[in-house]
Amino acid sequence: MNRRIWLAIALILVAVLVTAGVLHVNAARCGCVDAKRLVAQALSREATGSYIAHVTTTTGYGGKVTQTHAAVYHQGPSEKIQYPGMNASWSMTSHGKSYIYLPKGKRLLITEMSRLLSVRDRTALLLANFEVRCVRMDAIAGRRAYVVEIAAADRPSKRLWIDRENHTILRTDDYSASGDKRSSTEMDDVSFGAKIDPNTFALPSPKRVQYVMMCKSGESADLFRDLGFRVTKPTYLPKGYRLEGYHLLYSTCGCGHRSAQLTYSDGLNVISVFQTPRMISCCKTMGGAACDDQNCGIATQGQVTRSGRTVVVVGDLTPSDVRKIAESVR
User: Fold this and answer.
1) What is the CATH number of domain 219-327?
2) Using an 8 Å Cβ cutoff, are 274 and 303 in contact?
3) What is the C-alpha separation between 277 and 281, in angstroms, rounded?
4) Cα–Cα distance measured from residue 177 to residue 151, given in angstroms and rounded to the nearest whole number
């Protein structure tokens, strides 16, 4: 056989062996990791880490793909996401509350976060309900990361890119229950231990912006005692879901419309059960466009009517499960 042909074959064999070796090394490095422990460390790290990062979020919906860019300032339990522009909006979580600033109208929307489940509780739920495995190594923002898959049959799933050194989550991919990729958020660059100005997490003065309470949270159904109807729990839920919080929602249009919301979590996903006075619907009475109620436009697939109230269930579930949950609210 021609010497050049032998040389070409030899080079191909070397390439194949090298590639196989790299794949084997990656698999071995990832395979020796306790994936469940790694995820637990990453979720715990969210409450203690400190960094400044620039992130890109890609979202696909209805056949369209959109991208947003933002700067993230993370310090322990506080995190602020600043979007670019002179009059840019921002969001922040801090001390059990989340905030969204809307430049148009200079409004600060405030939501009290769930109180019933701790980070440890949510982590335990996730690890009990999902298969967690490390699938490979990768590089994100110039850093080595474990790629961890969190999945269960017929449920939305997630992939995490977890920093090999400090266990910070560098990238997150979210998938629907049908396996379609919904969104991806990835760090373009990150600086750990960077000094963050304390004023970064300061709230604007109420004299400069309008504070709007969107949602109050409580630890029992006593939160709903002034609604004028009895709020009840569903008797059916998919396996593995646990009550996460009681929430009282306020319309942002000033019409006085209030709704009860019960939230349930399996550690990764959330089911919301809304209960609203049947005869009060600002969407209908105010023509929809004039009212900024957050419950307007919710799909009616999981909607049923009960004596004096309307029940709406929202969650990434099969239509039959959504309907079954709604009908179990008595």
Assistant:
1) 3.30.200.100
2) no
3) 8
4) 9
Q: What is the pLDDT along the chain (330 residues), one digit of tens a residue?
A: 444 443 343 333 334 333 444 334 344 456 568 999 999 999 999 988 899 999 999 998 778 999 999 999 999 999 999 998 756 899 999 999 999 999 988 999 999 998 899 999 999 999 999 999 999 999 999 999 999 999 999 899 999 999 999 999 999 999 998 899 999 999 999 999 989 998 999 999 999 999 999 999 999 999 999 888 889 999 999 999 999 999 999 976 666 788 999 999 999 999 999 998 875 555 444 334 444 334 433 444 578 887 778 999 999 888 889 999 999 998
**How big is the CA angle at 90 (ends 88 and 96), to the nearest 5 degrees?**
165
Q: What is the DSSP letter of 166?
A: T
- Determine the Cα–Cα distance for residues 305 and 299; give it in Å rounded to an integer: 14
Q: Is the pTM of this model over 0.85?
A: no
**Domain range list for the chain:** 1-32, 35-192, 219-327
Q: What are the b/e assignments for 121-130, b being 16+ CB within 10 Å?
A: ebbebbbebb
Ramachandran bin of 27, using left for φ above 0, alpha for ψ from -120 to 50, beta for the remaining angles:
alpha
Structure tokens at 118: 């701790």
Show the DSSP H helices in the chain as ranges: 3-31, 35-45, 119-129, 282-285, 319-327
Q: Which residue, 125, 85, 128, 93, is CA-closest to 109?
A: 93
Q: Do domains 35-192 and 219-327 have the same CATH topology?
A: no
- Confirm or reject CATH 3.20.20.70 for domain 35-192, answering yes or no: no
Q: Hey, what amino acid is at 81?
A: I
